[in-house]
Design goal:
The strands form five sheets. A nine-stranded parallel β-sheet has the order 5-4-3-2-1-9-8-7-6. Strands 11-10-12-13-20-19-18-15-16 form a nine-stranded mixed β-sheet, sandwiched between helices. A five-stranded antiparallel β-sheet has the order 21-22-27-24-25, covered by helices on one side. By secondary structure, the protein is of the alpha/beta class. The structure holds alpha-D-galactopyranose and zinc ion (ZN).
């Protein structure tokens, strides 16, 4: 896949997993503890099967207590201690949280909000991404670490910053934004065209007049905002890249990464992926919400997509409770294990946590950790130890791929543009739509690759774009080709509306695809409270709420039609079957989940895509194939069972559960949140 073409092949995750198998570990923050505790830590890590620790993420003030005065002895001891115990070190640059001296001496290193408020230290992440002093000092500390530890045999991965997401509106950032705009648009005339500045008298005649979208009286130019989001993501990426380059000079061949956050709004990870040697993701499912496992599964499929199908790594997850929700329900021991296995099933070659030992000071004192405040003699820590042992038994999945013939198209620019204020309705939201179209795929055990709209889609029989509002001209041919070569393309509501500058495409919509779906629209229709009545053999008769579109059939078919009211007779679901077997589908409504599921199932049938593991008998049991291993994960808190003959290949085949290292056959019970990792043994 294009997104990861730049991954340095020599610096892959396999450089670690070839040595130790699946990675298991945590952020380790020894600067918060006395050295006696460090020794206890490494002994406990060994006992738990922990083989990777991320060190130093927030240690800038300890490493450089005064400008240019580095104190690294403690880190020498920490890295050596881990290495002596066979624990690989993922060494962080501490640049996410500058020490107070930086912002005091150079106030311009502190970020400014859109309202003009300059942020203070006292929390974290208060830096301005464009500040020359921040960048210089961040590079200095990164260079000192890289020079000192680049050749250390124990340092096997590098971790730049933490969860990049800062957006700043200061003067430095305004300058950097202008430079970025010159690069994108070339001339001021072109910028005026792209931003449509004839509207509301916004025409620029000097570059210095161009600003980030700071606080303003009313709605701000949508293309200005869109370009600013693109810029802000690229600017953070530039920070990552300059530190990565310094590390690479000193540590050639050692993978460099930073921790991503799934569908993280400020950062277009498709643009980041080529610059990451390892895709590492932070995942915080909500244990109190049984439905959240589907969102988490989708996030894992995104991580795998960002890695171009190659193994990725869970960098951070909670072992129990987080401390940032209003009411922090902890994971049970079974959920801790199940969440970790879900990631492995979906392509992760490692499962790491935030954090190793629970802090007794600071803002995250009440966040769970692998070693709780009460110590290792706890149910949670016993679960950690048990899980380490079973991960070691999953060596057969290391490096294995998750097969998929279905692609889900996700685009950050489209997401940003679709939800810009001033649209028809705020009830149609991109992530809920993605999830609605993904959920039936998840429920059917269908392998799904999450891809960008410019991906090579030729490997997919079904391509689903739940809400592709903005479509770049350059991506139109690739999407059209799905149908032209005989595949199925399913487009959700409010798709194909604008071009890459967020200018509305004129003519009947979805403008670049209307001929493919056999019908077209002329009006987006947010609905009054009663909604509209719909008749459909496919969906069943029912009501549609919140969103419909005034569509008509051209040379395709209507699979759902409005009954009554102003939209009476308008189709809401369109399909056109093409010679050559291709099908174009368009849904012009916010359908209830059942309706979406019916459409998705029909598209799966049309594309001839079935679950990679046969019939999925029980909706509570998530079934995922990775390489030769079939994972069965009980996503519910009720006991379930798996009939091996219906789940997997050959009836009566001898199966082995890798997690327990035992033979299993027939009907295998699955306790609440229980799991199996099945591999077929040759007789
Ligand atoms: C993220 C951050 C960590 C910590 C956890 C808490 O993963 O990277 O530093 O704040 O969240 O959940
Ligand atoms: Zn700034």
């Amino acid at each position: 896949m294009t997104a990861s073409a730049g991954l340095a092949s020599h610096a892959r995750l396999s450089r670690l997993t070839d040595d130790v198998g699946l990675l298991y570990g945590a952020d380790w923050n020894p600067e918060q503890w006395h050295p006696d505790v460090w020794r206890e830590d490494v002994a406990l890590m060994r006992a738990a099967g922990v083989n990777l620790v991320t060190v130093g993420v927030f240690s800038w003030a300890t490493l450089e207590p005064r400008p240019g005065r580095y104190e690294l002895d403690w880190l020498d001891r920490v890295v050596d201690l881990a290495a002596d115990h066979g624990i690989l070190v993922d060494l962080a640059t501490p640049t996410a949280s500058p020490p107070p001296w930086l912002g005091t001496r150079w106030p311009g290193t502190r970020a400014v909000t859109a309202d003009g408020v300059r942020l203070s230290h006292g929390s974290r992440n208060h830096f301005c991404p464009s500040s020359p002093h921040y960048r210089e000092r961040a590079l200095s500390v990164a260079r000192v670490l890289a020079a000192r530890y680049g050749a250390h045999p124990g340092v096997r991965m590098w971790h730049v910053g933490n969860e990049y997401g800062q957006v700043c509106f200061c003067e430095h950032c305004a300058d950097a934004f202008r430079a970025w705009l010159r690069e994108r648009h070339g001339t001021l005339d072109e910028l005026n065209r792209a931003w449509g500045t004839t509207f509301w008298s916004q025409r620029y005649d000097e570059w210095t007049q161009v600003l980030p979208p700071r606080a303003a009286p009313y709605l701000i130019n949508p293309t200005q905002r869109l370009d600013h989001r693109r810029f802000a993501s690229d600017q953070l990426l530039a920070l990552y890249r300059e530190q990565r380059d310094v590390i690479r000079e000193h540590a050639p061949g050692v993978p460099v990464t930073t921790n991503l956050m799934g569908f993280h709004h400020p950062t277009d990870y498709w643009r980041w992926a080529p610059h990451l040697d390892v895709v590492a993701d932070d995942v915080y499912g909500d244990p109190a919400d049984p439905a959240d496992v589907v969102r988490v599964a989708l996030q894992h499929d995104l991580a795998r997509g960002l890695a171009g199908g190659r193994p990725w790594l869970v960098m951070e997850q909670a072992a129990g409770a987080v401390s940032w929700r209003p009411h922090n329900v902890p994971k049970t021991a079974a959920q801790l294990r199940l969440d970790s296995l879900r990631a492995v099933a979906r392509g992760a070659d490692g499962s790491c946590f935030f954090q190793w030992r629970a802090s007794v000071v600071g803002a995250e004192r009440f966040h769970s950790a692998l070693v709780p405040h009460a110590g290792p003699d706890t149910a949670l820590h016993r679960a950690v130890v048990a899980h380490g042992a079973e991960l070691a038994r999953l060596r057969p999945v290391v490096g294995a791929r998750v097969p998929a013939r279905t692609a889900l198209v996700v685009d950050w620019a489209s997401w940003w543009a679709a939800e810009e204020p001033g649209g028809p309705s705020d009830r149609l939201r991109v992530l809920p739509q993605l999830l609605a179209y993904y959920r039936p795929l998840w429920a059917a055990g269908i392998g799904v690759d999450v891809v960008p709209p410019g991906a090579d889609l030729d490997a997919y029989d079904l391509v689903v774009a739940p809400q592709l509002f903005l479509v770049d001209d350059a991506h139109v041919p690739g999407l059209r080709r799905v149908v032209e070569r005989g595949g199925v393309l399913l487009l959700g509501p409010f798709s194909g509306v604008t071009d890459q500058d967020a200018h509305v495409r004129t003519g009947r919509f979805p403008a670049p695809f209307a001929d493919l779906v056999g019908g077209s629209g002329e009006e987006h229709v947010p609905l009054a409270a009663a909604g509209v009545r719909v008749r459909s053999a496919l969906l069943g008769d029912g009501q549609v709420h919140d969103w419909a579109e005034r569509l008509r059939v051209d040379d395709g078919e209507a699979l759902a039609t409005v009954d009554g009211g102003d939209l009476d007779g308008c189709p809401l679901v369109l399909r056109r079957r093409h010679t050559g077997g291709g099908e174009g589908w368009y849904v012009g409504a916010l359908l209830a989940q059942d309706g979406v599921a019916a459409v998705v199932r029909a598209c799966l049938d049309a594309a001839g895509v079935a679950g990679p593991v046969g019939v999925r008998a029980d909706p509570d049991v998530e079934v995922v194939r990775r390489g030769d291993v079939v994972f069965c994960l009980n996503a519910s808190d009720r006991p379930r069972a798996v009939e091996l003959d219906t789940v997997c290949g050959t009836p009566g085949a001898p199966w082995h559960d890798l997690l327990t290292d035992t033979a299993v056959a027939g009907r295998v019970p699955l306790p609440p949140h229980g799991a199996l990792a099945l591999i077929e043994r040759t007789r």
